[in-house]
Amino acid sequence: MATPLLTRVKSKLFVHSRRRSRNLLEGEFASVFHGRSLDYDDLRDYVPGDEVRDIDWKATARHTSPLVRRYVATRKQNLMLVIDTGRGMAAAARGGESKKSVAIVAAGLVGYLAQRHGDLVGLVRGDATNTVAHPMRGNEAHLERLLRAIDGATTLDGEQSNLTTQLQWIVRHVSRRLLLLIVADDVDLDPRLSDLLRRLHVQHEILWITVEDADPTSVDAARTTVDVADHYILPTLVRTSGRVKAAYAEAVAARVRANNTVLEVAGINHTRVGASDEVLTAVFALLERQRRASG
Predict the structure, then answer these.
(1) How many helices and strands (H and E) does the chain possess?
(2) 256 vs 272: CA distance, rounded Å
(3) Range 176-179, long-range pairs (CB < 8 A, 24+ positions)
(4) How far apart are CA 169 and CA 181, in angstroms?
């Protein structure tokens, strides 16, 4: 029997992080929403970046090192996972695993944090021609079904990606306030997407994670490299050329700059990951930036 996908996600959280780091991650998630009702929960060690107003000075005096008050949400919120399941996400990520594997860890981690806080989690997935919505639920069995839906829908013979299709679906069909976690392929973002993102950002909290492509110019020359966009085999002599390597690196850097501009103009906090082992640190930093932006 296949290992549940959520079990793999939890292994990233529990095996590769300390208890203190997990507590900090949960605390960051709890404080993302504007106007969220919070109750005092417990104390934890101060870390650089914490609000001075959250320091418990009496407890600090007894403990001899700074302690801050930790709060938890007292009412449920809704998290919508918005996942690109176009065929580009079935290709290799920078770290060598499939991009959909990285997306599943990212979606599963944030979904698990939401579920731990009693929040509801749903999914909108799709490609350039098709959008599928899964309902909101608040249990681990449902989250596992969502992750398996992402896994099953992302194949090399699927349609091309176009997240604009899924975001337009949300604009048309979703009226209540949500936290949107968008996990996207590493493609050029249409500058016109800025208008759509600004409309969504007025109503929703948005976090954006881009899953980085493998570099075809760094793949071993003995291996066959195929562009999944059009199934074109990249000639070894071409992709291992020094001039091609330099041109590819320059094109990637330009795309990153252009995409960052699109997201930043729309006011969207974003990050890039190339391997599932990078997700935990990237999500923590993303939640921290979102908290600061919301404060």
Answers:
(1) 10, 10
(2) 9
(3) 176/78, 177/78, 177/203, 177/204, 177/205, 178/78, 178/79, 178/80, 178/203, 178/204, 178/205, 179/32, 179/33, 179/77, 179/78, 179/79, 179/80, 179/114, 179/204, 179/205, 179/206, 179/207
(4) 15
Distance from C-alpha of 39 to C-alpha of 141, rounded to nearest angstrom: 27
CA nearest neighbour of 109 among 228, 189, 179, 29: 29
Global pTM value: 0.81
**Which residues make Cβ contacts (< 8 Å) with residue 75, sequence separation at least 6?**
36, 37
Please list, in sequence order, all residues whose beta carbon lies within 8 angstroms of the beta carbon of residue 70, skipping any fewer than 6 positions away. 23, 27, 40, 41, 42, 43, 44
In this structure, of 29-43, 107-121, 249-263, the range with the lowest mean pLDDT score is 29-43
Instruction: Please list, residue by residue across 25-57, b when 16 or more beta carbons sit within 10 angstroms of its beta carbon and e when fewer do.
Output: bbbbbbbbbeeeebeeeebbebeeebeeebbbe
**Is 238 exposed, middle or buried, given 0-12, 13-18 or 19+ CB atoms closer than 10 A?**
exposed
Which residue in this structure is represented by tokens 């098709």?
A: 130
- Bridge partner residues of 71 (DSSP): 40
Which token pair is 94?
């920078």
Check: CB of residue 66 under 8 Å from CB of residue 80: no
Q: 108: which 2 tokens? A: 């599963």
Nearest CA to 161 out of 197, 213, 204 is that of: 213
Rounded Cα–Cα distance for residues 173 and 24 (Å): 34
CB 108 within 8 A of CB 209: no
Question: Are 270 and 263 contacting, i.e. CB atoms less than 8 angstroms apart?
Answer: yes
Instruction: Quote the CA–CA distance of 26 and 42 in Å, as a whole number.
Output: 13
* Number of residues that this document lists for the chain: 295
Give Cα separations from 95 to 215, 219, 270 (angstroms). 9, 11, 19
Torsion angles phi and psi, residue 135, rounded to 5: -70, 165
Position with higher pLDDT, 21 vs 164: 164
The pLDDT tens digits for 128-146 are 999 999 999 989 999 999 9
